[in-house]
Amino acid sequence: MTALPAARRARSLGDRFAEVSVPLVTVLALLLGWVLKTSVEARSIAFAAEGITAQAPAGWLRTTGGETERLRVTDPASTGFGTTYVIETRPVAEGTTTAQYTSLLTLARGQTLTAYRVLDQQPVTVNGRAGYKLTFVYVESNPDLTHEDLPHVVRGVEFIFVSGSRAVLVAYHADEPAYEADYGRFRQFLNSVNF
Amino acid sequence: MPETLCCVCDKERAVKMIGQRPFCEAHYRAATYERSGLWRSLLIQIVVMAVFVGLVYLGVEIIKPVFTATSLLVTGLVLAFVPAAIWLAFFYQQDRVEPDPKGYVLGVFALGALLASAVGLPLVDNVFRVSQWLYADTLTTILGSILVVGFIQEFLKYAAVRYSIYSSPEFDEATDGVIYATAAGLGYATVLNLQFVLASGGVDLTVGVMRMVVVALAQASFAGITGYFLGRAKFESEPIWWMPLGITLAAVGNGLFTWLRGRLVQGGLSLSGAAANPWLGLLLAAVVAFVTLSLVLYLVRRNIRAALAAPQGDIA
């Protein structure tokens, strides 16, 4: 008498196809989960001030910054240095080019931010508008002496557009480890900025 | 006429059938063996876990220990293993009649822990980054907890059993699915607890221990559902949708528990501060664990009796 090979043993359909069906159902659930994540992250609220409109992420904390800041929103769920988007407008002298203004801005930032370094700067075009992209890094300096944690290294990028007698600055600051992962979401925000 | 082999050991000649599945004498006996001690063990385990929380709570209240940062961290790390140790110890105490090999149960426990650490936590925290969007609103919390957290956790617990002990002759009873999946769930829970302690740099002992027990009970319960489906998939003739249904039910239970526990524990803000109540979370976890695993063990027993009551197909 010959024994039946293992492949012909009476394994039920549910048993045999579980090797495919269970990972398949799991992958399907995770894809749906990814769609949910993307849709939640894409939720936004409209912002408009001084002729500038944008779609800021919904659920972020809106705080006030300096006199030149029109919008400052921070992700409350981010750890370390809170991921922040800033829209700023500053007056510029007539005839100033974007490259000249970027150089001036770099000097100004270097005087106010600790260990400020420019990593890269290059001309860019965003939504058909010419500007400059400034990539930088600095160390968060919190003047509160009671803070017991180490200062955070902040990485950021600033898009600078000169329009008539004003410069519009759209910036993204994030804790260094979170910078790359959050950059895609900032690009969505940047693309929504109109002036 | 070719000889049919036992579907468990793949060596001995099959002499009995359960549904469409052939069994040798020894594995037929194992597949239809009812473990009477598991019910009592389950209840005792849950009570002992609650007593453990109570003892830690009382100890902290009476002794009021003062910890350095390091000793608090070490204490938290040690306590993270206690719920799993209680569960496994009581399981063996009650399982002396027909014990599963300790090495295999501990191996599946370790595999559950490894999969949690190497795949589960990185997926949930770094790829899906759930903390940044999961709590946007109630519907998002429920759906995200099921689709992302629930499915990742339950699939990995399933994988820890399905791709290790499941094909072995040691997996020879319908109840083994529940036992091994629960061990994988406890491994997963232990890693979640260790991560919690390490990320917090130590924990408040009372609230921390309560959270650890809640996590262990919940992970073990939902793994038990997957284990029940695994056991039946191996020993009975089930349709193609059987295992996907099992994983989905476990993931749904896992997600709903995560949401409900958040609602109960979180409480609200009052003039005297945030009104969090971790005791409610513990009560919920104990009830969920008892109801879920009791139901699973009842279904296993019912299936065994139904199989025995059906006309037995002796193989000529």
Characterise this structure:
The complex is a heterodimer of chains A (195) and B (316). Helix content of chain A is 30%, strand content 37%. By secondary structure, chain A is α+β, with helices and mostly antiparallel strands. Chain A has 2 domains: 6-38; 44-192, Protein Transport Mog1p, Chain A, CATH 3.40.1000.10. In chain A, the strands form 2 sheets. Chain A has a 7-stranded antiparallel sheet with strand order 3-4-5-9-8-7-6, with helices on both faces. Chain B has one domain. Chain B is built from 9 helices and 4 strands. Chain B has helices at residues 25-31, 37-63, 69-94, 102-127, 138-162, 174-200, 205-235, 242-266, 278-309; strands at residues 16-18, 21-23, 269-270, 273-274. In chain B, strands 1-2 form a two-stranded antiparallel ribbon. Chain B has a two-stranded antiparallel sheet with strand order 3-4. In chain B, helix 3 (69-94) runs antiparallel to helix 6 (174-200) and helix 4 (102-127) packs across helix 6. The radius of gyration of chain B is 21 Å and the shape is globular.
Query: What is the CATH C level class of the largest domain in chain A, in words?
Result: Alpha Beta
Count the helices of chain A. How many? 3
CATH homologous superfamily caption of the largest domain in chain A: Mog1/PsbP, alpha/beta/alpha sandwich
Counting DSSP H or I runs of 4 or more residues, the number of helices of chain B is 9
Q: How far apart, in Å, are the first and last alpha carbons of chain A?
A: 86 Å
The mean pLDDT of chain B is 82
**pLDDT average of chain A, as an integer?**
85
Number of strands of chain A: 9
Strand proportion of chain A, as a percent range, falls in 35-45%
